[in-house]
Amino acid sequence: MSLLKAVKLKEGEIVVMILRHFPLVYAPRVLAGLLLVSAPFFFMVPLFAMRGFGVPWGLFIFAASVLAGLLHSLKTFVVWYWNAFIITNLRVIDVDQRGFFERTVSEAAYDKVQDVSYKIKGFWGTLLNYGTLIIQTAGTTSNLELEYARDPKEVQHLLSEILAARLAVPAGARNEKVSALLEAAASLTDIEAKAFLVELKGAVNNKEPRSEAVDQADVEKLMKDDSAQD
Description:
Blueprint: E1 15-20, H1 27-42, H2 44-49, H3 57-82, E2 84-88, E3 91-97, E4 103-109, E5 113-119, H4 123-128, E6 130-137, E7 144-150, H5 152-168, H6 173-186, H7 190-204, H8 216-229
Antiparallel strand pairs: 1-2, 2-3, 3-4, 5-6, 6-7
Helix pairs in contact: 1-3, 7-8
């Protein structure tokens, strides 16, 4: 199952980044799983020869070791894949996976975020540039944290930019501008409305602004089109 399918996005919500644990921190777990899978093959002959009371104990040990290694490796992958911060344009979603059957999902809307910080600790964290990302929220007793986050400084910078942009443009301000523009457009005549569309198209295409509202040739063309429709 995809990580995004487990989290229901809101209307107009866009995923900016999915941040997971730095993969190298799982190296000891991966090596342990590989050891459990590969070790029995080095002792396959004596294990298969091991019998007692007519029971092939060596075969059971071989199968148990391989199965344990596969399950351990699968659990490591599941924990890495599902432990993540999903950063969108509206909020931060924290997915916390513990084992196969325990998952906690928390979220923080940007209007509730008070501070974004990070800490890098230890020799390997400093050398490989990973650490803990901390998001402090208002009105909750716990913060959102993701350990072993790769390049936490850049993620903090990204979140700070998103928060600054939302403060610069208050929620709903853009909708108010659109509503005001639509109200003004409703009062325009057909010629004025078409002239406005010409200017809007030019602005979208990054054309140079004209000294007049509409070029005379455009006005004449619009008037001819309007007369033809009448």
